[in-house]
Specification:
The complex is a heterodimer of chains A (623) and B (346).
Chain A: E1 4-6, E2 16-18, E3 21-29, H1 34-47, E4 51-57, E5 72-80, E6 93-96, H2 99-105, E7 114-118, H3 124-129, E8 146-150, H4 152-160, H5 167-171, H6 174-185, H7 191-200, H8 205-224, E9 232-234, E10 243-249, H9 250-265, E11 269-273, H10 280-287, E12 294-298, H11 302-314, E13 318-323, H12 325-341, E14 345-351, H13 368-373, E15 382-385, H14 391-406, E16 409-415, H15 416-420, E17 422-426, E18 472-474, H16 489-505, E19 515-517, E20 524-529, H17 533-545, E21 550-555, E22 557-559, H18 565-571, E23 574-579, H19 584-593, E24 598-601, H20 610-622
Parallel strand pairs in A: 2-9, 3-6, 6-7, 7-8, 11-12, 11-13, 13-14, 14-16, 15-16, 20-21, 20-23, 23-24
Antiparallel strand pairs in A: 1-2, 3-5, 4-5, 10-17, 15-22, 19-21
Helix pairs in contact in A: 1-6, 4-8, 6-8, 7-8, 9-10, 9-14, 11-12, 17-20
Chain B: H1 28-42, E1 50-54, E2 69-72, H2 78-88, E3 93-99, H3 100-106, H4 108-117, E4 121-127, H5 162-169, E5 173-178, H6 185-194, E6 198-204, H7 216-219, E7 228-231, E8 238-239, E9 245-250, E10 255-260, H8 278-286, E11 294-301, H9 307-313, H10 322-329, E12 335-337, E13 343-345
Parallel strand pairs in B: 1-2, 1-3, 3-4, 4-6, 5-6, 7-11
Antiparallel strand pairs in B: 5-11, 8-9, 9-10, 12-13
Helix pairs in contact in B: 1-6, 2-4, 3-4
Classes of the chains: A alpha/beta (623), B alpha/beta (346).
Chain lengths: 623, 346
């Protein structure tokens, strides 16, 4: 936090201290409405003109016992007057709604950080549930922090008294009391939240009014109380490119990207999925979009989901299936069929920590091998990776474009962090987007199901119902032209070569390879992919600011790799590959380019910290 | 007024592909292929709108031999592919060809769900009570004690009933036929086709190589008639070489019984087939030899709205242009950042 004393025209008489960026973390019981609070704070912050990034940290248990450490839910937001790409290494301010939330989250708060606790929940019962022996508010363990104790529970109940709620209903308003206080603290406008509450509780205006009253009370508490060490702050707007904006989560952006791509191709979309964390949110978003030529199908399992999607593609829709690593494993055989029969298909893998069930709510990037190699036989597939919530939109469009242009399955790698994290997003104008050209073949004369477009090597999309084109396809190796079953040795060689060449050729459709930071030929070139983008980029930008000779390339195209990547890597002094797995992209780059790339792995289920990355990059720069 | 217009009826040849049929000589699949092709002629199917979907197995090679659209997919999963096809284009006429291993072992899950969802298609299960393609291992319908390469001392697993499973899964059309009873099969298949929703037809099929003769007792001339009953809606349940046996309900045991229809027999007690009665269908499906005849024909037919109809009714399939997509992306709270970098809510 940079302390700059400036007077602002804020709503308090006192001056507000100006900060260039802040990280706030809300933590409480999963029943405390932490994610809702975070979502509202995100919107208010976006409207205040800051750039921002968020990280919702859900508990693994759905309904963990109230007050326990494993029921703690948290939401972190990083916002500033400059480009913000991560939710921040560590919070400046922590709001803890109960002892368990304090216990779990305090280790993240640096000494001297602002700590707001709901004193009203610090009682013996909650200590016991959180397995705390002494009251942390009294035993001196919080002496190193800027501790603000407020009986939020009591004050909330007072604020909502006129609305005649039950005790339980009243206590549930306390997140909005706290939100009101934090709005005051950081000079955010509560009006959009008021609107939101009114809309949300349309059928229960009493609850809406009570929550609004609680929020105002929290805000007023900040305004009127002269608290030691508790000033008001302001974070000026960030320089943001002109345009129309909204906040999006990665799941929303993915869903919209798929719908827009289908619109650009003028085709129906059939999205088939089986629920699994953290992929289900995409299904939920699309299930609400049935007005836009989208059919969602909740299949009986992941195998049925991918098969139904392939069936839909066969019949002329854009088949899409979505899952997480364990479900993608189940889809493997059917993906091989899609490769063999050469039908368009988009597969979304929201990766999570593995192996097996692993840690469903925690993020990892360990399915790269599965995506690129994870099928029997030589079954090449295009693989794209999403770097941030908004990027999911662009990747969804590109994946669909590739699937339709090349008549091939395409795998998108995203993850739980991206699906649930939000960022401000410049809304594209669909009128300016390039249409996706994916005509059905209708010409009966000279039709062969496996005749190829000489440029893309794509076969024709001849859908059932087209007069005169009746033909049979299947998983058995087929003649390179007629598609009839063929066990001919030379034909299998030819088909295997064609399938590989077609996928390799997809690289011709890529735009230029962009450096995310720095220039080709730097002493240290950092190659990242996926959701590590924000942390890696901020770390590299910081080091460039310090004068280091370092560059960052962030790969969207995992397979086939970008045609210019080899050149960039060979010109680099040293290549280091940070990733949240045991070295998967690293192995791919080493085998493709025969370069001595170095690993920088982390598999803790937590995002990279910028500080740790910088330290590691410095070591490589000095080596 | 009746104007006779000459109809150019298609022939079996019009539904025969140029691919050489590769089943073993004498395999029951040939007879079923013929029956299906005859049915396609009878129902005046449009080859351009007809799709045969199959899994893996000897039976599943079927689509290659019919000159309609065809998709030979992967083992057990054909119901899921077929569901995707129907959701994408409900106008297509989908036939699903599967075997006892394909449908009841690896694909048991999908079969259950396509039936309970009632997706409009004809599901033909070629039951030869064996894994043919993989050279004769026992299947989920193989009789207990059968010696096969993977059960040299006789199989231990109890077999399951495909028709009872289908009824349990909520199928709204359940029928049974036999490859050798060529006379009856096209009629049953035409009924299956006429039924809107998932139509399940179990067809007993002789695998001459690995399980020859398992259905002989039902088909052999002069004997088979005593061991099978062809059900007809609204008709009394009479069977036998001399039409001298009937089915009655024993109320005390709540069970079906065979009665002799000798002279002076009380035919008033005979059960009359009501294909909309699921309880009766279940009892009929469960009948097996040697004491009871095996039920053939349409055991159950009780139509309901089909899945793809209900799903598509909830959707809007109008073209989505850029303006509508732009509006979609702008639902909820948006704000505009001006040239000077200042924001304004909207
Ligand atoms: C995933 C997978 N597992 C196993 C097989 C091998 N396999 C092919 S067909 C078959 C059994 C087929 O039996 P059934 O469905 O009864 O068909 P039939 O050959 O008797 O007509 C098996 C086990 C396969 N093709 N794919
Ligand atoms: S193995 Fe049996 S089922 Fe398969 S083709 Fe030969 S006879 Fe028919
Ligand atoms: Mg079989």
């Amino acid at each position: 936090m940079t302390d700059l004393q400036v007077a602002t025209a804020g709503n308090t008489a006192s001056s507000r201290r100006k900060l260039d960026s802040v990280v706030v973390r809300f933590a409480g019981d999963s029943g405390d409405g932490i994610q809702v609070t975070g979502g509202q704070f995100t919107l208010a912050t976006a409207l205040a003109g800051n750039d921002l990034a968020t990280f919702p940290d859900y508990p693994a248990e759905i309904r963990a016992p109230v007050g326990t450490t494993f029921g703690v839910s948290a939401f972190q937001i990083h916002f500033g007057d400059r480009s913000v790409k991560t939710a921040g290494d560590a919070p400046d301010t922590l709001i803890a709604f109960n002892p368990a939330a304090l216990k779990v989250n305090l280790p993240r708060l640096p000494k001297g950080g602002l700590l707001i606790v709901d004193e009203g929940s610090f009682n013996e019962r909650n200590f016991k549930k959180a397995e705390i022996t002494a009251n942390p508010l009294e035993d001196g363990s919080l002496d190193d922090y800027n501790l603000i104790r407020i009986d939020i529970t009591k004050r909330t109940l007072e604020a909502v008294k006129p609305y005649g709620l039950s005790q339980k209903e009243g206590v549930r308003c306390k997140n909005f009391w706290a939100l009101g206080l934090v709005y005051w603290l950081y000079d955010r406008d509560p009006a959009p939240t008021e609107e939101w509450l009114k809309a949300k509780f349309r059928n229960n205006p009493k609850i809406a009014e009570a929550n609004i009253a609680a929020m105002h009370a929290g805000h007023a508490y900040g305004e009127t109380m002269e608290l030691d060490g508790f000033g008001a702050y302001t974070v000026p707007p960030a320089p943001i490119a002109p345009g129309q904006y909204r906040t999006v989560t990665g799941a929303e952006a993915m869903a919209w990207g798929l719908v827009v791509a289908a619109g650009l191709a003028d085709k129906e979309m059939m999205f088939a999925s089986y629920p699994i964390t953290p992929a289900s949110v995409i299904l939920h978003h699309l299930a609400r979009l049935s007005d836009y030529r989208v059919t969602t199908f909740q299949a009986e399992d992941e195998i049925a989901a991918v098969c139904a999607a392939i069936g839909a593609s066969y019949a002329g829709s854009i088949g899409v299936t979505s899952s997480s690593g364990p479900g993608i494993a189940l889809k493997g055989e059917a993906l091989g069929l899609a490769v063999a029969v050469e039908l368009p298909l988009v597969v979304v893998n929201s990766q999570r920590a593995g192996p097996s069930t692993g840690m469903p709510t925690k993020t990892e990037q360990a399915d790269l091998f599965q995506a690129v190699f994870g099928r029997n036989g030589d079954a090449p597939m295009a693989v794209l990776a999403v770097r941030s919530p908004g990027d999911a939109f662009d990747v969804a469009v590109e994946a669909t474009r590739i699937a339709l242009t090349y008549m091939t399955p395409v795998m998108i790698l995203t993850d739980g962090y991206i699906n649930n994290a939000a960022e401000p997003w410049k809304i594209p104008d669909v009128r300016n987007m390039v249409a996706i050209d994916a005509p059905y073949h209708t010409q009966a004369e000279g039709f062969h199901p496996f005749a190829r477009d000489p440029e893309t090597l794509a076969r024709p999309w001849a859908i059932p119902g087209t007069p005169g084109l009746a033909h049979r396809i299947g998983g058995i190796e087929r003649d390179a032209l007629t598609g009839n079953i063929s066990y001919d040795p030379a034909n299998h060689q030819k088909m295997t070569d064609l399938r590989a060449a077609k996928i390799r050729g997809i690289a011709n459709s890529y735009g230029p390879l962009e450096m995310a930071a720095g220039k080709p030929g730097a002493a240290l070139t950092v190659v990242g992919w996926g959701s590590t983008y924000g942390a890696v980029n901020e770390a590299v930008q910081d080091l460039i600011g310090e004068g280091a000779d370092i560059a960052h390339v962030h790969l969207r195209h995992i397979w086939p790799l970008h045609p210019d990547l080899g050149d960039v890597l060979r010109r680099a002094g040293r290549v280091v590959v940070p990733e949240m797995n045991n070295g998967q992209l690293l192995t791919l780059l080493r085998s493709e380019y025969l370069i001595d790339a170095r690993p920088l792995d982390q598999v803790t289920g937590q995002p990279f910290r910028i500080g740790n990355l910088k330290a590691a990059f410095r070591r490589h720069l000095e080596a | 007024m009746n104007i006779a217009t000459p109809v150019m009826k298609r022939t079996i040849k019009d539904f025969t592909s140029d691919q050489e049929v590769r089943w073993c000589p004498g395999c029951g699949d040939y007879a079923i292929l013929k029956a299906v092709q005859k049915t396609l002629v009878d129902i005046d199917a449009d080859p351009d709108r007809t799709v045969f979907v199959s899994g893996i197995g000897c039976a599943a090679r079927f689509p290659y031999y019919v000159s309609t659209y065809g998709f030979h997919t992967i083992h057990g999963r054909a119901p899921a592919f077929a569901t995707g096809i129907k959701l994408s284009n409900p106008e297509l006429d989908v036939w699903l060809i599967t075997g006892d291993g394909d449908a009841l072992s690896i694909g048991g899950n999908h079969l259950v769900h396509v039936l309970r969802r009632n997706v409009d298609m004809q599901i033909l299960l070629f039951n030869n009570e064996i894994y043919g393609l993989t050279k004769g291992q026992y299947s989920p319908t193989t009789q207990k004690g059968t010696r096969t390469p993977s059960s040299p001392q006789g199989s231990v697993d109890a077999p399951l009933s495909a028709t009872l499973l289908a009824l349990g899964a909520g199928a709204r059309f359940v029928a049974r036929g036999i490859d050798r009873l060529q006379k009856d099969l096209p009629g049953i298949l035409a009924r299956a086709h006429a039924h809107k929703g998932a139509s399940f037809v179990e067809i007993y099929q002789n695998c001459i190589i690995y399980n020859d003769g398992v259905f002989e007792g039902l088909t052999e001339k002069g004997i088979g008639e005593d061991h099978r009953i062809l059900l007809e809606h609204g008709k009394p349940m009479i069977f036998g070489r001399n039409r001298d046996k009937g089915l009655v309900l024993n109320h005390d045991r709540l069970a079906l019984e065979v009665v002799d229809l000798g002279e002076g027999a009380d035919t008033g007690r005979l059960l009359v087939h009501d294909e909309t009665n699921k309880t009766m269908a279940s009892m009929l499906a469960a009948m097996e030899g040697p004491d009871m005849p095996v039920a053939l024909g349409v055991l159950y037919c009780n139509p309901d709205a089909s899945y793809e109809q209900e799903v598509t009714a909830r959707e809007n399939h109008d073209r989505v242009d850029a303006d509508r997509l732009n509006a979609m992306l702008r639902q909820g709270r948006c704000w505009t950042v001006g040239e000077d970098g200042t924001g304004s809510g909207g």
